[in-house]
Amino acid sequence: MTSSDVARASRVSRATVSYVLNGTPNQTIPEVTRRRVLAAAERLGYTPNAPARALRAGRSDVVLFLIPEWPIGPAIASLVEHLSLRLTDQGLTLVVHAHPRAARSATELWKAMRPAAVINHQALNDHEADLAQRAGIPVVTPVFQSRGRDTFALFQQRIGRLQAAHLLATGHRRLGFALPDDDRLVAFASQRLQGVRRVCAKSGLRPPVTETVALDADSAAAAVDVWTSARPRVTAVCGYNDEVALAVLSGMRLRGLLAPGNLAVVGVDDLRVGALTTPSLTTIATGMSEIGEHLAASVTHILRGGDEPEPPRPELIKLVRRESA
């Protein structure tokens, strides 16, 4: 099947078929015509020749999502899920690439894939992003409404600040912080810890007692021993994320301790499993679905035109209060 077949079946020109199937901006095609073309293409099983389209347009329909060599945890997975769904609605295909610094250069990736756009999530430095722009590849970076400051750091620090502020508001004066045991997460963990430290300093309190917690009960129990034997005693712990916080709860059970009476615990990410534990886990929701929606809208705006989407506000990061703190 060719575009000519689709044009005959939908009783429009090949140009109109091309405009509809490629989502060409600034074309005043009636909605009824657009639907007729799409229905004809689906009925005939027409599939555009991707290499040919890329050759003509100088790019593919791929949106390349570049992240550093991070583990793909639940938060990133949620972001990718929503981003992929929205881009698919626009006829675009999301490709996620964890880009280690030691790997081949990003320039080689662009040459091989000819992406329509690149979403840069802490993977490219300013020089690399500038090279992509010069090559005609739009680069989209996750941002928040923050007056041009480092929005990644602000985002992560707000998470830590919300954790600490909640614990202080409920009467705790000596906090612990449970770090992950994966060095690849230091960019996140260091900023979240910084947020907790700033809240403690602002309140005239000692900095949090930090312990690294692996995702097993024995490691968590050893950290619990440190926190409960500290002087003054730690009475509440900020977990790097929900998985680490759940490990802390497991370590507490090994020591015969309960949350929040013996040690309050707050996680991050609002995983569904956190609501099913006993006690249920107090956490910070990070708005990954909203961020995914915004990134998709930003890519669509760059490629197709239309109104520029408003950046998400930091307020979408919020406390979800349950039983553990």
Helix percentage:
40-55%
What is the CATH topology assignment of the largest domain? Rossmann fold
As for the number of domains, it is: 3
Q: Using only CA atoms, what is the Rg?
A: 24 Å
Describe the largest sheet. 4 strands, parallel
Strand and helix map with partners:
Blueprint: H1 3-10, H2 14-22, H3 31-44, H4 50-57, E1 62-67, H5 74-89, E2 93-98, H6 106-113, E3 117-120, H7 126-134, E4 139-140, H8 151-169, E5 175-180, H9 186-202, E6 209-213, H10 217-229, E7 236-239, H11 242-254, E8 264-266, E9 283-285, H12 288-304, E10 318-320
What this model shows, in words?
α5 runs parallel beside α12 and α8 packs across α9. This protein is of the alpha/beta class and 325 residues long. The termini are far apart. It has 3 domains: 46 residues, 434 Repressor (Amino-terminal Domain), CATH 1.10.260.40; 114 residues, 3-Layer(aba) Sandwich (Rossmann fold); 137 residues, 3-Layer(aba) Sandwich (Rossmann fold), CATH 3.40.50. It has 12 helices and 10 strands. β1, α5 and β2 form a beta-alpha-beta unit. The radius of gyration is 24 Å and the shape is elongated. The model has no long low-confidence stretch (mean pLDDT 86). The strands form 3 sheets. A 4-stranded parallel β-sheet has the order 2-1-3-4. The chain has a 4-stranded parallel β-sheet with strand order 6-5-7-8, with helices on both faces. Strands 9-10 form a two-stranded antiparallel sheet.
